[in-house]
């Protein structure tokens, strides 16, 4: 199984298959607009601009499961990201990443690339998953790992 088996809804649009990203290196991130790590949007956008032409796609999944740090509507989230950070990478509708209502993509990511001490749960906003061109999850990064620190790992896959 690969991430291409899943579907998700862009923040403004109809559900799409992640199959459309086949052959790309992906960085999948659960995001929030009112978090201590929100400034990572800028680093993510910088990575996107730097590596998009080489085959990188960043997929942002807003989530409000961590101290209600993403309370806005999908339209508000899209506007916030565009105005404050110039985000042009794909954002998807707000989802749950943990628990019984967790998006199936995140259920898969958690099982495929557990975190510290084998924990599957997403611990906080801006947990990142790096996926190779074949759709296999390569690595999970904690929220404290900045986008800039991931650049070398991305370059290896490009």
From TrEMBL:
The active site is at residue 35. InterPro entries: Glutathione_peroxidase, GPX_AS, GPX_CS, Thioredoxin-like_sf, Thioredoxin_domain. It holds the Pfam family GSHPx. One of its GO terms (molecular function) is peroxidase activity. Residues 1-158 form the Thioredoxin domain. Transmembrane segments: none annotated. Keywords: Oxidoreductase, Peroxidase. GO terms for biological process: cellular response to oxidative stress. Belongs to the glutathione peroxidase family. This is Glutathione peroxidase. It comes from Heliomicrobium gestii.
């Amino acid at each position: 199984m690969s991430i291409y088996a899943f579907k998700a809804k862009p923040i403004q649009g109809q559900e799409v298959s992640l199959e459309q990203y086949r052959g790309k290196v992906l960085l999948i991130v659960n995001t929030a607009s009112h978090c201590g790590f929100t400034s990572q949007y800028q680093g993510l956008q910088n990575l996107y601009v730097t590596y998009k032409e080489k085959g990188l796609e960043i997929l942002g999944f807003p989530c409000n499961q961590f101290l209600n740090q993403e309370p806005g509507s999908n339209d508000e989230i899209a506007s916030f990201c565009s105005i404050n950070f110039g985000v042009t990478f794909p954002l998807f509708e707000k989802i749950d990443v943990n628990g019984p209502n967790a998006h199936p993509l995140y259920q898969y990511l958690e099982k495929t690339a557990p975190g510290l001490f084998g924990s599957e749960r997403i611990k906080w906003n801006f947990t990142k998953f790096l996926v190779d061109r074949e759709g296999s999850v390569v690595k999970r990064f904690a929220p404290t790992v900045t986008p800039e620190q991931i650049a070398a790992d991305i370059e290896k896959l490009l």
